[in-house]
């Protein structure tokens, strides 16, 4: 992943990320999408560590 272009909330702590990748062997760089799910337990732990 080179440049994230946007994040789309899908509900239920799931998001779709649209991004541009890089492939130096080609003239044009590919775009892609990936769906991720936020782990709220990890988020809560990280928030406590940052306080």
Describe the structure.
With about 50 residues, this protein is α+β, with helices and mostly antiparallel strands. It has one domain (about 5-50). It is about 20% helix and about 45% strand. It has 1 helix and 3 strands, in the order βββα. Strands 1-2-3 form a 3-stranded antiparallel beta sheet, with no helix packed on it. A hairpin with a 2-residue loop joins strand 1 (about 5-10) and strand 2 (about 15-20). The longest helix is centred in the C-terminal third of the chain and has 11 residues, at about 40-50. The protein starts with a strand and ends with a helix. The mean pLDDT is about 90.
Oligomer: single chain
| SS-based class | alpha+beta
Q: Element order, helices and strands?
A: EEEH
Beta strand count: 3
Helix content: 10-25%
Principal-axes geometry comes out as: elongated
Radius of gyration, taken over Cα atoms and rounded to an integer in Å: 15 Å
User: What is the terminal-to-terminal distance?
Assistant: 30 Å
Total of helices: 1
What percent of residues are in strands? over 45%
- How would a crystallographer describe the biggest sheet? 3 strands, antiparallel
- Overall average pLDDT: 91
* Integer tally of domains: 1
Strand order of the largest sheet: 1-2-3
Uncertain parts: none
